[in-house]
Amino acid sequence: MRLSTSRLAPFTFVQKFYLRILCGAGAVLWYLMATDTHAEAASKNVLVLYSNHAFLKEGQEEHEGITKTLGNDRNAEVYSEFLDAKRFPGPDEESRKVQYLRRRYADKNIDVAIVSGLPALSLAIRYGNQIFPGATVVYLGIRDQMGDVALPANFIGVDFRLDVARTAELALSLQPDARKMLVVSGTSILDKIAEGIARSDLQQFAGKVSLRYLSGLDEADLDAALARADPNSIVLYLSISQNGVGTEIIPSDPAIRAAAASAAPVYGIYGSYIGTGMVGAYAQNFETVGEELGRIARLLVEGAPPKDIVVDKRAAGEFMVDWRQIQRWGLSASNLPAGTQILHRPPSLWEEHRTAVLAALAVLAVQFLLISTLLLERRHRRKLTTHLSESEQRYRNVVETQSDLICRYLPDTTLTFVNDAYCSYFQRSRAELIGTKFADFIPEAARPEVFERVQALTQDAKTQRYEHEVLRPNGEVGWQHWTDRAILDGKGSVAEIQAVGRDLTELHRAEAELRERRKEVTHLTRVAMLGELSGALAHELNQPLTAILANAQAARHLIRGKKPDLAGIGEILDDIVADDDRAGKVIKRLRSLLKKESADRSTTDVNRIVMDTMQLLRSELIDRRVAVDLRLARSLPPIEGDSVQIQQILINLILNGCEAVAGVANAERRMTITSRSTGNDIEIAVSDRGAGIDPLMLDRIFDPFVTTRNTGLGLGLSICRTIVEAHLGRIWATNNPNRGATITFSIPAHKADHQ
């Protein structure tokens, strides 16, 4: 908003206020220009006409209210004029003012005119079309001063009347025991109007209080009369703008004198009197009225139709009191009417030091929260400590009652905790064990592997399960199984390692004894098989021995002749050597099968083992009238294994095949032995044309003591599976599509890069 003011009274009379307005307008203009250098020119013009001069307190408060509401509207150009009608009355003066205003604002195209007071309102009604044609008029007028004047349609504003009765009600609510009321007024026209309103309004209180009117007195007589007033009486000050001798005065000046001189509380009918020493009034707050006038003008500037604007009734009047005078006269604020505005009351601690109070409350709230948090944290820690203690006790009870060995150790194998079972195993106390390294209890040869596993655990933080040898207290070497798991610190590094161990010494001994028993069973099985083959083996030995005997006799006969046939003798000797070699090989194979030795692993040819087995079983197969077809793949890679044990597998499978075909016709007694490579493994399959295997027995046929023969023990195939698995292979049985069954076993081929 941009403000412009002018005067119709002499310049010297309003100079100070005029300069104040100009300075305020300059500050507003500077602010607007600084915040928006590209602001558009105002599109609406507003003219404010005040009835009195610029130094009247009511006018100043009203101007402040208008400026507060309308001053932020950057689309309005606001002009102010002060008519000073009381001091410059008369038709001629009015005519000069109209001519001045008409010429001054002829090219301003006033859109909204705000008129305050009866003189300005009367001027606007009679000459508004000349001064601001087409403008909407926003007025402030006292109905009691307007009579029956009809307002044009383009007028909208705040109507109010001097409600002297409401002021009397306020006074009586504060002084219910009062019995006298002094009514003070002046001699000007406005003073007389106010007195007339008072005489009419106060008639209703005639039965409660006695009324005395003090009108037209000079200052001295008025001061004397008020000084003699009963302290329990009520003084009602209306208005004195002209004293008893006809001197024009500012109404607030005698109001101040009256309040100071009076021996009883003084009340007024204008809000501007609050602060002069009067207790209170039912009146307009002129700043509030100014704000309402400015609000209505702003809505009109923004384009709102006048008929749609609702006037705020609060601008018509309200109860207001001076808190200082309430305290001065000892009046009770609790008797005030509801909604009374209390002025000049010392601010409360909250009002005066709100920021400090908020800061203090914030500090207290933070302290409360901190203390509460600390108390809760302390309580929580106590619970955690108790819970942890109980948990540790439960953990210790569980750990100490375990039969397993439990310990914790650092990555360098230093023990930090051991349970009772650990102490009992090594026959040492906990104090002796903690701080020592458990690696000292492991044979030196086994320590590197244990160190590697601990190192791997610290790097990967995974669970490790392993077995190692241990030095028992009696000097023997035992075995233990351990499950180790890393315990991490807050940074994710390994702080300790917890381990649970179990002694496996007895288990290892049992396994070793079991292995020995298996070897014995395997050997006995071979011996038993050779017993079954004794007839065939005797035949295999008889043939070369008989041939050797015949050749020796023939050689002796030739030598006795006169001319020995040396060439024939040489051939006979060659036959004797061959037959001896044949018999020696049979005996050698028998000795290898009958020997009770540990397995001898070496690289060997599977097909060679098959051929040697066939030579050993040739007579048996002939006796049983079983034909064997050999389908051996060529150039098979060697295997790494014990040839005697593999030959035992083949003998067992071939003899089982002979038993399977024993019940079929001679022409159908056939078996097939196949060898082939599957890439990483060598497979050997023995197939017969017998009755096959019961499907329910296929998965159990390799279990111990499971047999399909009435005379068998059920250990042959179980031993075959044990031998195959010891060679890291596998064995399985299937029924042939047509007839018979096939048992196949596979052994990993030997890789040259492992040699």
Keywords:
single chain; 755 residues; alpha/beta; Rossmann fold; 6 domains; seven-stranded mixed beta sheet; six-stranded parallel beta sheet; 23 helices; 25 strands; rod-shaped
If you had to describe this structure to a student in words, what would you say it looks like?
The chain has 755 residues and is of the alpha/beta class. It folds into six domains: 2-160, Rossmann fold (3-Layer(aba) Sandwich); 164-268, Rossmann fold (3-Layer(aba) Sandwich), CATH 3.40.50; 347-396; 402-503, Beta-Lactamase (2-Layer Sandwich), CATH 3.30.450; 504-598, no CATH class; 600-755, Heat Shock Protein 90, CATH 3.30.565.10. 45% of the residues lie in helices and 20% in strands. It has 23 helices and 25 strands. The chain has a seven-stranded mixed sheet, with helices on both faces. A six-stranded parallel sheet has the order 1-3-2-4-5-6. Helix 3 (91-104) crosses helix 4, helix 8 runs parallel beside helix 9 (252-261) and helix 22 (643-660) packs antiparallel against helix 23 (716-726). The chain is rod-shaped and about 205 Å long.
